[in-house]
Write a structure and sequence with these properties.
Length: 513
């Protein structure tokens, strides 16, 4: 460097830069060695490291105010283990310091020895960057383990396709949050309901077996829909009917009076077995079990899942765990849901009594049936005149020809006018499926008064069904290989394929919102 007047400094005034650093290191070392265990560093440390695995816990702790779960204590090195490297390094410096003092007592060499001992201590202790790197690696490993663990658990494809269930929380929600939560619950119910309508019963049984919680979620959404949008529940009507018919008693030898309430079909001992096929949460059995002894009735409830403490028997209603002819009344209350619903009807024929008194009650949604198809030429068409009407017309024409007056069209032709409130739900194909499976419709039992549902009752015939897996059963009293003339003509008229029969009831499919 060149000298500048007024700015140049003599070399004797310069000081080495290593001396303050060495002194600061020795002071820090003394402070660390003499510090008490209760002293804390001035720098604030945060223990909330937010990752994918603990983001839910952080939300519940800081937003919802829940107390954090007790964490497992980390194994930290003891004070003695921490001091071991310090003692070793101090021992080295202590041993080296007397030797240097004996050889040379100058202050400059003593400072060099202290800086050398500090360098040894720094080599033994890990730096702050190394500690941070270790923490980051541990957090990444924990996050990967938490993400891999749910993937290992097996789940059905139908359950994976369902929308995620809203998390259960006990926090007080705002009205907007409650409305959003209800929308999530409703959408999950609609998706699950559509799945049950568009899959066979075997797949539905596997779905509820693998995910039992879906059963409670489905019926929670079902009960909410009943309260909000249904004018009435068909189950309530069946409960009232069973109570009314169960009180009626008939004397032996008395003729049945159709104008009065008919009694329930009973066995010689007076008992009556009622099977609710696809019972849901068993509302019918829960309501009537307290009065089962008075009614002298036994209730059987079957569905895809049986919660603990419920009167439900877990079963696929296409394959019931019941004996042949052991049931007096079978009920399908909005339960013909699977794509194989025709097999449910065949199974009901098997378990019902075969003396012509077994009854099958059915209630279904109107939207699942078709509408009555009328040709355009038939609407407003005019009926031909009868003989009596033609005679009257000739007399009028003979008396009115001289006056030259014409007869009104309304007097000559009568329009095919239908009642304005007539329900156009077409149940003919549905009834045909039941007829081919050995059931006869009670025409007086058809009820279309409800705007959402259709109710009807069938009676099991004594002979074998014309179609289905029990069609080969030989009816009692008929010879082997013989068929009656009525059965032969019915076979000719019944031309529906199994696919067409399954399509008689449309599935309940919701619009995508």
């Amino acid at each position: 460097m060149f000298a500048v007047p007024g700015w140049s400094v003599s070399s004797s005034a310069l000081k080495q830069q290593t001396e303050p650093a060495a002194q600061s290191q020795t002071q820090d070392q003394k402070a660390n060695s003499s510090s008490k265990p209760n002293n804390k560093s001035k720098k604030r440390k945060r223990d909330d490291n937010v990752t994918k695995s603990n983001v839910g816990e952080m939300y519940r702790r800081h937003i919802e105010g829940e107390k954090p779960a007790p964490k497992a204590q980390k194994q930290t090195p003891t004070k003695a283990e921490k001091r071991k490297p310090d003692q070793k390094s101090q021992g080295r410096s202590v041993q080296s310091a007397p030797k240097q003092q004996d050889q040379d007592n100058t202050p400059q060499k003593n400072k060099d020895a202290e800086s050398h001992s500090n360098d040894l201590e720094g080599a033994d202790k890990p730096s702050k960057k190394q500690k941070k790197n270790k923490k980051n690696k541990q957090q990444k490993q924990q996050g990967q383990q938490s993400e891999e663990s749910p993937k290992e658990a097996p789940a059905s494809t139908a359950a994976d396709s369902l929308p995620a269930a809203p998390p259960k929380t006990q926090a007080i929600l705002t009205p907007l949050q409650q409305a959003m939560r209800q929308k999530l619950i409703s959408s999950r119910f609609r998706h699950l309901n559509e799945t049950l309508y568009t899959t066979p019963s075997e797949k539905a049984l596997e779905l509820f077996t693998a995910n039992p919680e879906l059963f409670d979620e489905y019926h929670a959404g079902f009960s909410r829909q009943v309260k909000e949008s249904w004018p009435s529940n068909p189950v309530d009507g069946y409960i009232a009917t069973l109570r009314a018919r169960g009180k009626v008693s008939v004397k032996k030898g008395a003729k049945p009076d159709k104008s009065r309430t008919q009694p329930l079909p009973r066995r010689p001992n007076g008992s009556c077995t009622i099977a609710d096929l696809g019972c849901g949460d068993a509302q019918l059995a829960r309501a009537l079990l307290p009065s089962a002894q008075k009614l002298n009735a036994k209730f059987l409830s079957y569905d895809l899942h049986a919660p603990e403490g419920s009167p439900i028997t877990k079963a696929d209603i296409s394959n019931l765990p019941a004996e042949d002819g052991s049931v007096d009344v079978a009920i399908f209350c909005l339960s013909l849901m699977g794509t194989n619903w025709v097999s449910f009807v065949e199974e009901a024929w098997r378990v019902l009594r075969s003396d012509g008194k077994g009854e099958l009650w059915v209630s279904e949604v109107k939207s699942r049936f078709g509408k009555v198809v009328r040709k355009k030429a038939q609407i407003g068409a005019r009926k031909p005149l009868t003989k009596a009407e033609k005679k009257k017309l000739k007399k009028k024409q003979a008396g009115e020809d001289d006056a030259g007056s014409d007869v009104d069209d309304g007097e000559i032709y009568a329009e095919d006018a239908r009642p304005p409130n007539d329900d156009e739900t077409d149940i003919s194909a549905f009834v045909e499926v039941f007829r081919s499976r050995g059931f006869v419709l009670k025409t007086e039992s058809v009820d279309k008064s409800n705007k959402m549902f259709v109710k009807m009752e069938f009676v099991k015939q004594g002979g074998a069904p014309q179609k289905g897996k029990y069609a080969s059963v030989v009816p009692a009293g008929a010879g082997p290989g013989k068929k009656r003339f009525i059965e032969k003509t019915a076979d000719l008229n019944n031309t529906m394929t199994p696919e067409e029969e399954a399509a008689v009831l449309k599935p309940c499919v919701y619009k995508i919102r």
